[in-house]
Amino acid sequence: xxxxxxxxxxxxxxxxxxxxxxxxxxxxxxxxxxxxxxxxxxxxxxxxxxxxxxxxxxxxxxxxxxxxxxxxxxxxxxxxxxxxxxxxxxxxxxxxxxxxxxxxxxxxxxxxxxxxxxxxxxxxxxxxxxxxxxxxxxxxxxxxxxxxxxxxxxxxxxxxxxxxxxxxxxxxxxxxxxxxxxxxxxxxxxxxxxxxxxxxxxxxxxxxxxxxxxxxxxxxxxxxxxxxxxxxxxxxxxxxxxxxxxxxxxxxxxxxxxxxxxxxxxxxxxxxxxxxxxxxxxxxxxxxxxxxxxxxxxxxxxxxxxxxxxxxxxxxxxxxxxxxxxxxxxxxxxxxxxxxxxxxxxxxxxxxxxxxxxxxxxxxxxxxxxxxxxxxxxxxxxxxxxxxxxxxxxxxxxxxxxxxxxxxxxxxxxxxxxxxxxxxxxxxxxxxxxxxxxxxxxxxxxxxxxxxxxxxxxxxxxxxxxxxxxxxxxxxxxxxxxxxxxxxxxxxxxxxxxxxxxxxxxxxxxxxxxxxxxxxxxxxxxxxxxxxxxxxxxxxxxxxxxxxxxxxxxxxxxxxxxxxxxxxxxxxxxxxxxxxxxxxxxxxxxxxxxxxxx
Length: 598
Known about the structure:
This protein is an alpha+beta fold. Helix content is about 15%, strand content about 30%. It contains eleven helices and 29 strands. The strands form five sheets. The protein has a nine-stranded mixed sheet. A six-stranded mixed sheet has the order 18-19-17-16-29-28, with helices on one face. α5 (about 300-320) packs across α6 and α7 (about 450-465) packs parallel to α8. The protein is elongated. The chain starts with about 25 loop residues before the first helix and ends with a strand.
């Protein structure tokens, strides 16, 4: 359901207001100097000009004063919800209105004149917009007012782009998750406050969900114009709104220009042996024979599964790994109908024309890897590497719930020394309602279940010290989704235990792998013991997923937007079966490290 208000905006044409209906107040008086109107609950009369009406005929209109007062702390705009049965208003209409002052907007406080009766008074010029070059000290002082942002705004998050027509923007470059760069606690809280001061949502001036087109985009989404995070918008103009916990600008016209962030080529790193870590975003294959959909997670139908599989094959083939450490694979065994076996078969089929001897094998765990619907997995190129020792699975606490049991296997390249790869996936920060008091969000920036992830990190150190694969391999890499950012407790514990970050010293703009709440950070890690760190030759993240809007995902949601807009000439329409592009195969970016054979 669309999160914006969905009240009708039908106004009675030509209706006149009783002269004594209410006392005349300026819009600035109704707004007041604080977050809440000083006239809350009172019936008042205002005059102004309509500046923006919701495009779908729902959600109300904004009006602004014909002449501003001298107090810059009081906003000159107001949101209006007219009585039912009145004809729609349009921008540029001068009106008088009588209504009750309320605070609407869901979790926010949007000062509103509700149940308003309208009198039209002809036309009036729109007030000049407030020009912004930097974020204002307080968006509240601009609530309901026209603004034009002259500063370039960076797309910092696009998760709700096609669902609600909104995008997360930031002054001064994109935003990074506080605990990716600073320690949890006071420093993280300060960084979060700084991030919030720099951000603003751009919305589409509609109250319905899943719009057919996004009105503020000058061109529709396509592979040529994907509006990735990191893109820059220029000439944002609209009305300042506040609802659902956030200030936003409701766009009154398309932005002047979009500088698209390019899709990066697959990275190349030094080192003869390549290890890739990938979160597959719930790779579920139904019953493995084309049926059994919908499943508990992942694709809704067989066609969606084929698109998902094709995207992962495209990404993996471009990275050309020797070992794959996987997360979020269906926990359905290792037989020919299993998700991991069918991924291996799809990789062989796709790569065989150029690599006739290619042979992908899954590492078969000695037991079922936990009771969760998803598990970790390992795949390797058996034509390039030999498995050494035995597969090892760490079961029991703290991997009996939340933290998925890690899987380890050792390998050796021809003429090389053995090395061990551990695929891991620790408890996410979500599901806080299931957290016991110790695992609740402590407000330090680490989210819920931090102690659970710390316990898993400590158990990993002890488990690896015992050579669980029995291979005698000295070099070990922990690869996977730790669900902790770079400065959080689990990662710091592993560093203090001697594990080295394969991406140490890289700027945040290179090492992130996930975008949440409009902030980029790194949940996916490659942590190496001293022997493996000595063999490290290169490391890279491939930003195929986190910067992409979910519209490009395997569920094909972008096709709905293409009913009225064709994809750019020469570019496949994303989301269609057979497109086989790596973009938005998951919500996490894959990582790649290169190591020496010995």
